[in-house]
Amino acid sequence: MAALQKSASSPLTQALAASSLLLLALWVQGGAAVPISSHCRLDKSDFQQPYITNRTFMLAKEASLADNNTDVRLIGEKLFRRVNMRERCSLMKQVLNFTLEEVLLPHSDRFQPYMQEVVSFLARLSNKLNHCHVESNDQHIQRNVQQLKDTVKKLGESGEIKAIGELDLLFMELRNACI
Predict the structure, then answer these.
(1) Any residues with CB less than 8 A from the CB of 114 and at least 6 apart, and which?
(2) pTM of the model
C-alpha cells in the first residue's frame, strides 16, 4: 500500500493529473483558450535584411526632420494600453495597414528614394499577416488603433509626416510583436 501511495505522488503522475485538468478546462470552454490566430507570425529573416532596414530607418529619419510636433507620440505606451503580449501582433498589423493605406500610399511621391522600397517591404509584411486576428473580443485593440487614427487625422499632414517619421518604431514593434 505504501508503494502505491508513493507512486501516486510521483512527478509523472502529477504532470498527468495537471494535463488532464487542463484538457478538461479546455473542453468546458469549448477549446477557446488560445485567443490569437496562429497566423500572427512573421519570420525573423524579414527583419534581418540590412538594406531594407537601413532604408526604413533613413525614411523615418528624413520624415522626422520635417516633423515639428514633438509633443505627440503615435507608437508608444498609449497604443499598447490594455493589450497583452499575445495580442500585440494583431494590433501592429492594424497599425501597419493603416500606415500603408492612409499615410504612405498618399505620400508615395515624397521622401524619395526610400519610399517605394519601404512601401513594397511593408506591403509584403502586411500580406504575410493577412490572416492574423484576435479570435476573442478585440474592442480594446480597436479602440487603441482608432485613437491612433484619430490623432493622425486630427494633426492632418503633420500627423501623416509624424507617422512616416515613426516607421522605425513601427518596424521595431512589428519585429518585437510578430516574431
Answers:
(1) 55, 56, 58, 59, 62
(2) 0.77
